[in-house]
């Protein structure tokens, strides 16, 4: 395999709020942080990474299942968590906007939808086995 790591790079107008939300509230461990006269960057660990590519019909279906209507743009970030209901509450308390409460999906997971800092639409999913 040629690729060793998938890194999603997000430009956040409110850098400090975004770092607090994703690092402190969501719990992504900080791997590295760099400061220069030109700016700052923080690299957070997010466990195993995958790239999910969906055609427009599947994207419509996912939004319909999770939210009830088409709401996502062409990028949506999904995080697997141990308890999607609890993490959804924690992240809305930390400033995320709730789009949809957790719902059981046809693929047997419990998914919620939020909008986080930097305008990222987030799916939190819990595998139900």
Automatic annotation (TrEMBL):
SUPFAM superfamilies membership: Glyoxalase/Bleomycin resistance protein/Dihydroxybiphenyl dioxygenase
InterPro entries linked to this entry: Glyas_Bleomycin-R_OHBP_Dase, Glyas_Fos-R_dOase_dom, VOC_core
Domain VOC: 4-127
Any Pfam family the entry gives: Glyoxalase
Protein name in the entry: VOC family protein
Organism whose genome encodes this protein: Nonomuraea typhae
